[in-house]
Amino acid sequence: MDIDRLTQALNILLTRVPAHWLRDSHTKPSLRPVNKQAKIPFYRSLFDTTTFERAYLAMYPSYGGNEARLAYKYLHDSMALSDNKDHGLFWLIRRVARHFLKIEGHEILCRHELLIPWRETVRYIGQSTLMCALAAHKDLERRNHRVCNFSPYAKSDNLRLRQLLAMGMAENHFHLKGSAPAFLVSWVCLMNRVIDRAGDFNRKEMKHCMCPERAVAPGNNGDLRDWVTRAAYIRYWLWNKLQSAPNSALPPSEKTEAFLGSIVKHLALPNFSILNLQHRINTLRVMNNPRSLDYTCDTTRDIGPYAAIAGEHTFQYLMFKAIYSDDDRVRPYLDLYYLYLLIAFSFRMELVQANKTVGFDNFHKYQNRKEIFVERFPAYSEAFLGMAYATNLGNKAVKSFEARVTPGTTVQKLHRAFNILHRIIEARQPGAPHISPSSNRMRTFARQVEQLAQSQSWRPVRQPRANPLDERVFHVLHFIKEEDQIDWRKPFARLACMARPRHYRLRVVKLEKMAEAITSWRHGCSREAANVYGIDACSQEIHCRPEVFAPAFRRLRQDMHYPWYWGGTKIRPTPPVLHISYHVGEDFLDIVDGLRAIDESILYLELTHGDRLGHALALGVDARDWYNFKGDSVILRKQDLLDNLMWFYHKICEYGIVADKLLRELSGRFSMLFHEIYSQKISVANTPATIDTYYGAWKLRGDHPIHYAHPTRVTNALLLTAKRCNILPGHKFDLLRRQTVVRELIHRYHYNALAKERGEQITTFKINSDYVSAVKKLQQRMQETIAREGIAIETNPTSNYLIGTFGAYDKHPIIRFYDRSLTDSPSPQQLFVSINTDDQGVFDTDLESEYAIMASALEQAKDENGKFIYKPANIYAWIDDVRAMGMLQSFKNIETSL
Are 832 and 794 in contact (CB under 8 A)? Predict the structure, then answer.
């Protein structure tokens, strides 16, 4: 049986067929038992040939109409040959699940050799439904009943790999709020809190439809809200059917099929409203446990790290059990369950990155939605954060766990936020008694923290301790990058540009305040501050360069603290030296632009041994493939192109790359563009502005721009008295600052309104073969430099695969960065790399899965002759090397070892 055709059909039937057909089929009281109705339900008929063909061609454009019709016939023929053909769609779900998954003991595992196609199969629908279907089928065979507290991510069944990873892994790139299973927690919240949801769906972050081809056709946001409300009622109805009378909470008037059909179609009747539905759901939850997050199970019991989503797993598990056992309680309503799945997966595609659009901007739209549907409900919001921690704390193989959080702008906000985070960790770590963050104890502590925030004193209050904090966990403060947005239509825009440097709002209004608050907070030597080991800058890097963060990062790294002693006894923990990680080279408009950003982060932030670069894809992507993907043309702002031309020119010269013709082309285009942006010729003291003096001015962009507000007034005395963190140290930089033409150039870069406005104009740049060849050589030379300087690189396979352009896991840049164990002739540059998850909730993954998917991809990689490229022994040696390097990269491991 061709499983590829069946997985294609499954994705079409669960994500592309029109959901309104199932909705409209219930406008009349036609929900009779299956064997009494003439009309075949949709879950068995699987729609019709025309509908299937239309959806098939939209989803798989490389096929034609004949192939689509044959695929539909093949699906029906396969179903007819099965022993459970009456199960229709639900047979197909089980068939696909059995192909990829297996159950060993209580674990649901994925067959290692099928990890890559498994991830593609569940890209749109997630893993949970197929896992529930398989668990239900197997438990029926074994007459078992399962507690559905399993992970939503299927682990690999490769024992060799799992034993290797059990030696210890480090999670070095983990954004806390992006790492909870956002869809599942949000869905549970929506199914239990159905009223007052219009504001959530009408948020500006939800305006854009990420997957227009979904089953629930995109209209206005109210449409999606109505569909989700239908799903909540369907779930409530089916759950009562599963529980059966006399425990059913359905009043007699609501047990009629006519009532059900009208609700599904219209969402309203004279004697029913959404408020009624909320009351009924609340009643079910009170009968279970008033503090439970879901009415389908008691989530307050100690049932593991995935308790918050166990209710949804329980509901689907019991539905599949009822389906596969031909339970008459639900048989007449299976089209309703089909509709429920269509709605759930359509909503999921708006929260979990499922579309095939590349680039950070696409991901950014997804990650901005992650908390919209839970943030107004404290219990669900706390569960959201708690699950982000618990997914790693529940894995004993994770020995170091770095969670990244955004700092507040005041000491009080920092202290309050980290106290709450530490309490959540203590309540969620293995072996801890279950203490809900919403319990009386936590509410009492929250009031203490609130009083502290409003008082003048920010000294820590005495805290109730549930357990010692898990030593594996520590935090990194990550600052958010922002574009410098200027509305040139405003009357005083140019005047403001002359008075303020680039990114004034981010530099002065936010970063400087944050740096001041963090410094004061660390001086207090609280245990929370002592558990912060690093700083980072994340989010959209295009149009927000490393120069913006340079003074603040240098200040925070130089901030030193000494332990507090009393009578020879250390009475306060000492905050560690802050190491730096910096997101860079992940998304770029030209590879040269990404390489320049990497170089700027190393230069301006003074990165060295122990520091890390996040992603750095520009350093390792195949340049020829990337430029082919972009059509050998890039589009960007004139200021960025000018800087790229200057930087590329000098790097070619510095590294001794032979490209005389290209150098002339770069220099000529630079001169033209420089004149366009800066209009008149700059010449001070008979020293003209050239590509060389412009390069000197570029090197000083890591200085605080306030020193160049009046370039002619910069004196030696100012250089001597300026705070070291505000300017780059070193004699070579002092020499540049003494050049008047260099100071004039950097002054105009920051304070010349006309230059800023012209630099914002868009231009295109054609790429030729000489340019590509020089880029490839420059990538290699920069890799060698970074390797010698001991700067590490954090890679995130699934994140990079979905955001980047390389299209296959076995082409991930990590293989170019480090291949010593993989091949018999490794490259001369071997970088210090690690594997991490990034935003595992958005990308539907976890740390163990990231290692497993890279191992599986390497095992399946073949050359042009169809031969396997890598030997299994080499692959596992490479995995072990990367795992060990990840442990060495841990900021906390570095400090504790020293």
Answer: no
Buried b (16+ CB within 10 A) or exposed e, 637-649: bbbbbbbbbbbbb
pLDDT above 90: residue 406: yes
Question: What span, in angstroms and rounded, lies between the C-alpha atoms of 202 and 186?
Answer: 16
Predicted TM-score (pTM) of this structure: 0.90
The model's pLDDT over 33-49, given as tens digits with 9 standing for 90+, comes to 343 344 788 999 888 89
- What number of H helices and E strands is found in the chain? 40, 17
Instruction: Give the helix/strand (H/E) hosting 346.
Output: helix 334-348
What is the H or E stretch that residue 764 is in? strand 762-766
Distance of CA 767 to the CA centre of its chain: 32
- Indicate the helix (H) or strand (E) that contains 584: strand 579-584
CA distance 524 to 529: 8
Tokens of 122: 């569940």
Residue whose token pair is 């709020």: 177
pLDDT tens-digit readout, 767-789: 999 999 999 999 999 999 999 99
Tell me the three state secondary structure of residue 289.
coil
Q: At what angle do helices 182-192 and 307-324 cross, to 10 degrees?
A: 80
**Euclidean distance between CA atoms 790 and 558, whole angstroms:** 20
Question: What's the rounded Cα separation, in Å, for the pair 860 and 800?
Answer: 19
Which tokens in the block code for residue 792? 């590490």
Query: Of 542, 752, 730, which Cα lies nearest the Cα of 644?
Result: 542
Question: In the 8-state DSSP scheme, what is residue 39?
Answer: S
Of 482, 503, 509, 480, which Cα lies nearest the Cα of 756? 503
- Residue 644 structure tokens: 């790229």
* Mean pLDDT confidence for 502-506: 93
Q: What is the pLDDT of residues 133-162, one digit of tens each?
A: 999 999 999 888 888 989 999 999 999 999
pLDDT at res. 38: 42
3-state SS, 359-378, equals CHHHHHHHHCCCCCCCCCCH
What are the tens digits of pLDDT across the range 2-28?
A: 899 999 999 999 999 888 888 776 544
Provide mean pLDDT across the span 759-763.
Answer: 95
Q: How buried is residue 661: exposed, middle or buried, by Cβ count under 10 Å (0-12/13-18/19+)? A: exposed
Three-state SS at 884: helix
- Alpha-carbon distance of 567 to 590, in angstroms, equals 60
Q: Which of 811, 809, 823, 816 is nearest to 783 (CA)?
A: 816
Pairing mode of beta strands 398-405, 473-480: parallel
Tell me the C-alpha to C-alpha distance, in Å, between residue 354 and each of 60, 182, 340, 427, 738.
15, 13, 19, 33, 53
